[in-house]
Every structure is written in structure tokens, then in C-alpha cells.
Design brief:
By secondary structure, the chain is an alpha+beta fold. Helices cover 56% and strands 10% of the residues.
């Protein structure tokens, strides 16, 4: 009996529920991409997924996403360092950003905080000439 009831409910509302979920997540994805484009961190790139709940990001060379996560958590921002998704080769400058659990305003605020942290990290790094001079 329970399965018959679930089947009827699913049959009558599944398509509209999926359409509503897709629209909600698309707005959140678009909000995250817009926030990333607005912050304009040099040499950072990201995917524009057609589905799913995450963006994949590549940070500027030399930025360690695991170390950045420590600073981000202190600023109430979380992401998953990209190295967690590789069994062997572990790129340190990638990350996965989720847009599924937060509203557009929180996404904008979180990305702004993350970009501020990235820009501070970039400013603190020695330039290529300074690094070579220190050898």
C-alpha cells in the first residue's frame, strides 16, 4: 500500500519538483559564477557546470588550497581542497566550491571573503624576481 501511494505522489509531482530544483540550483550556480567574475582574482579559473552542485576552481599558481582552507574557515567560508579528489597526482591549487546549500546572498558573501583571502595571499607572495634574487 505504501509503495502505491509513493508511486502516485511521485508520478503526479516528480517532474515539477525536478524542474523547481533545477531552477533553484541554476540560480545559485549563476550567482557563484557572477560573484567569482566580480571579485576578479588574477589567474583564477573555474568551470561552468551544466548540472550538479559544485564548481571546480583552479587557483593562481603557488596557492595551496589546503592552507587557504584554514584561513577561509576562520572567515566562515568552506570548500573542499582539490587534492582530495585525486588518488595519485595531488594538485595543491585546486578546489571544489558548493553552491547547493546556500542562498544567493550567502554565496556572494562567501565568494567575496574567499577572494579577499586569495588577494591577501597573492600580495604576500614574493614576486618572481624577488624569489630569484633570494636564491
Amino acid at each position: 500500500m505504501n509503495q502505491m501511494i509513493v508511486h502516485r505522489v511521485a508520478r503526479s509531482s516528480f517532474d515539477s519538483a525536478v524542474a523547481a530544483a533545477r531552477a533553484k540550483y541554476q540560480k545559485r550556480r549563476d550567482a557563484m559564477i557572477a560573484a567569482l567574475e566580480t571579485c576578479g582574482v588574477p589567474d583564477m579559473s573555474w568551470t561552468r557546470p551544466d548540472g550538479g552542485f559544485f564548481l571546480w576552481g583552479a587557483l593562481p599558481e603557488g596557492i595551496d588550497s589546503a592552507r587557504l582552507l584554514e584561513k577561509a574557515m576562520a572567515a566562515n567560508v568552506a570548500f573542499v581542497p582539490g587534492e582530495a579528489f585525486y588518488p595519485h597526482r595531488r594538485p595543491r591549487s585546486t578546489l571544489r566550491l558548493s553552491f547547493s546549500l546556500t542562498c544567493e546572498a550567502q554565496i556572494h558573501e562567501g565568494i567575496a571573503r574567499l577572494c579577499d583571502l586569495l588577494e591577501a595571499d597573492i600580495r604576500q607572495r614574493p614576486s618572481r624576481a624577488e624569489a630569484l634574487a633570494g636564491l
